[in-house]
Amino acid sequence: MAQLHAVSSCSSTNLLFNCSKRGSSRTYDKVHCTRTIAAHEQVGVKSSEFHGLAVSQNIAKFGPVRENHAIKAVLASDKELSTSSGANGKVLRKKLNKVVLAYSGGLDTSVIVPWLRENYGCEVVCFTADVGQGLQELEGLEQKAKASGACQLIVKDLKEEFVKDFIFPCLRAGAIYERKYLLGTSMARPVIAKAMVDAANEVGADAVSHGCTGKGNDQVRFELTFFALNPELNVVAPWREWEIRGREDAIEYAKKHNVPVPVTKKSIYSRDRNLWHLSHEGDILEDPVNEPKEDMYMLTVDPKDAPDQPEYVKIGIVEGLPVSVNGKELSPASLLTELNEIGGKHGIGRIDMVENRLVGMKSRGVYETPGGTILFAAVRELESLTLDRETIQVKDSLALKYAELVYAGRWFDPLRESMDAFMKEITRTTSGSVTLKLYKGSVSVAGRESPNSLYRQDISSFESGDIYDQADAAGFIRLYGLPMRVRAMLQKGL
Hints:
Blueprint: E1 4-5, E2 17-22, E3 25-31, E4 42-45, E5 55-58, E6 74-75, E7 98-102, H1 107-120, E8 123-130, H2 141-148, E9 152-157, H3 159-173, H4 184-203, E10 207-209, H5 218-229, E11 234-236, H6 247-256, E12 270-273, E13 278-281, E14 311-318, E15 321-325, E16 328-329, H7 332-345, E17 350-356, E18 362-368, H8 370-386, H9 389-407, H10 414-426, E19 432-439, E20 442-449, H11 457-460, H12 472-480, H13 482-491
Parallel strand pairs: 7-8, 7-10, 8-9, 10-11
Antiparallel strand pairs: 1-6, 2-3, 4-5, 12-13, 13-18, 14-15, 14-19, 15-16, 17-18, 19-20
């Protein structure tokens, strides 16, 4: 049978990275896999939804344009496609054409690239989402992807979409998991997975892959989103299949396959960072009795070292969603970024909790959510003016279920979407502003106002008024307490 050569192999192909800069961030266009053809052949690169750039150029030794702008693997003899062997003649688990991999550039995902090629005989498209993890996490990705054997790299800025379409709905709903967790990682996974499905459609991939372990929640969050948005995609989860069991195994595999091991200092903690939060797990945190070390925190100062003078911040809110800080209107991502800086300076938003993972085990995590803590306090306080008692009670009860659905990866579940429609409708009158006082790790309310306030000073005042007659309270109390009186009468034989 003819031998299969994957055109993504760096040893036999040329790779082109088109790089563009937008402000302080950097995005990388596709890495184009090629085969040798006549010099007059033209490669046209379609304007992509991911980068908004159109590149069309005449380049020698580049392959013919395909409808999906992806160059297929070709046979050395141009004969029948092999479906039984992959790289190094290894028997394939299954033949796939192209896989979009959630890619960070770290050790695990760098190793996954050659592992997918070797075990599935496929081209690998690396996909990286910018959800606010920091520019340092995005630097050098094109070199790493190329060195690992990927045929294509896509970097997409999802920060505004992440905040506007995922964080803000949870904020409006008041969704908090198990009393404390503000769902930072839970909200980030579906926005990334959604963009991966879009990328798979863009490049003509028939599969998607992630580097989540079989013990965590993230595997569920990714895969439920894949199922909901494109059930025809194959899903490959290497950590549930391969023989690699830890960091040393991964390093050994990387060396064997000539994949440069990322030269980074190994953190003693497992961290996940995005624009909403920073989570810490592992090491001494695995024992719930241990207090976190102060040098672990990265977004917030120690409250005792925060400024000795409180800072007041005014949050403008329209229909349950924040729109301004101190009178300055900002985009969703910019607003959150500013509040993260303000809150972090005052040591706001540190949460230490033991939570119940979806897969059944308990885990201990420490979260830093400075901007999010400020926003939750602001929205909740404004609702105290604009929502009546029964509405608040129903909203709070639904918020628990809403948080459970998001935590469990069911973002695209019709139930969550229906509940979100309710939350949107019920908060139509929640507009106004809230002034908060930030001081040494605490957030307290200094003032709140709304044109739709249900609070009436003329009714609430202890002074006599025309609307509320205090004498009416006696009859109300007798009727309201009638069941208790009847029970007491029965017990006493009356």
